[in-house]
Design brief:
The protein contains ten helices and nine strands. The chain has helices spanning about 5-15, 30-40, 45-50, 55-70, 75-80, 135-145, 165-170, 185-200, 245-260, 275-285; strands at about 100-110, 110-120, 155, 180-185, 210-215, 235, 265-270, 290-295, 315-320. The strands form two sheets. It has a seven-stranded mixed beta sheet with strand order 5-4-3-6-7-9-8, sandwiched between helices. Strand 3 (about 155), helix 7 and strand 4 form a beta-alpha-beta unit. The structure holds S-adenosylmethionine. S-adenosylmethionine binds near residues 128, 159, 216 and 245. It comes from Drosophila suzukii. Keywords: Transferase. GO terms for molecular function: transferase activity.
Length: about 325
Amino acid sequence: MPGKYDKLQQQFLCCYPVKKMAWSTVKLPLNWEDQQELIAATCGHPMNKRYPVRRSYLEAFLKQLMHLLRDQEDVHDDIYSSLCGPMGDNPGSTGTSSSYGYKHYLLEPGVHITLRESKSFVSEGTTGLCTWEAALALADYLLQHRDLVVGKNIVELGAGAGLVGILLKLPALELKTGQVLLTDGSEPCVQLMRENIALNFVDKPSEERPQAEQLNWDAVNEFPWHSHAETDLLLAADVIYDDSQFDALLRALDYLYTRRGSRLETLLASTVRNMDTLHKFMTQLGLNGYKVTPCANVSACASHFCRDHTAAVQIISIRR
Ligand SMILES: C[S@@+](CC[C@H](N)C(=O)[O-])C[C@H]1O[C@@H](n2cnc3c(N)ncnc32)[C@H](O)[C@@H]1O
């Protein structure tokens, strides 16, 4: 049965910006039972108890909630005790515990992805230790166009924290993909992806899990491709932001298309921060003999994720 605070729950568990949360679903004054229900749906959720969101997010959420309840006489003890909850520690993992926390992406009832992510957009020399809007948009697009992935061996470039590849192999979604290989040039990203794969595929044999390997676009020809299935679909989200990387990415594409030719399709999702950068890359693709087709817009309303929508995400298909 849908709960009163489902939207807030979905947003809290994936650390959606506190100020933009669905606070209008909280009808004031909030009686004792409702306060209890709201806390149970968010801070007290079993997933948060096991793998907590980062401390600073929890505090910001509770601060906003207490601000909302500022004119009420009774504030439930559970709200205060939530502040004493567990921290996002995971000894032996990448990064320091205070800079990391968990996010739980609820996709549909009973289906979720849990990722350990950095709170910083840039840390340990990479931008990939947290999930970006373009990855959420690409995941959405694939969920809405399942035929694109059925039976395909898929490689993701610059996969970061691993959301898209983990989604593609999630048993509950039954996407029926072939092998899924997540790659990134950053060693900490590969380590984090492996942690995140282990979190989401407990007790699953390796053939039912995505794999994660280090692959720098500069060294694509040194990668042991013979140990992996031939690639049918290449994915990349938010990798077009730094034009100093264009040549390396184009060389990687060239290497992979030379192996697979017209049997290979690439789907590239880019947050349009700077239209010039994206156009520049698309022009380069054209000059290198690729056919670039913009895909249908990923609908904001039909999103499986809590997306911020502050910037548009464009998805293009690349063929040669
Ligand atoms: C903005 S992050 C996007 C991460 C993830 N795709 C997402 O959208 O959440 C860009 C990613 O590309 C990776 N990357 C950048 N340059 C690279 C290169 N030359 N070779 C391999 N990976 C690279 C970074 O390490 C980082 O993980």
